[in-house]
Amino acid sequence: MNVAPFINTGIHTRKLGKVNVQTVTLAHGGGGKAMKDLIDDVFVAAFDNRVLAPLEDQARFDLNELAAHGDRLAFTTDSFVVDPIFFPGGDIGKLAVCGTVNDLAVGGATPLYLSCAVIIEEGLSVDVLRQVARSMATTAREAGVHIVTGDTKVVQRGACDKLFITTTGIGVIRKDRVLGVDNAKHGDVVLVNGLLGDHGAAILCARGDMELDTLIETDCACLHGLIEAILAAAPGIRFMRDATRGGLATVLNEIADASQVAIEIDEVSTPIREEVKAFCEILGLDPLYLANEGKIVVIAPPEQAGAALAAMRTHPLGVGACMIGRVGQGEAGRVTMRTVFGGRRIVDMLVGEQLPRIC
Question: What is the CATH number that goes with domain 189-346?
Answer without folding.
Answer: 3.90.650.10
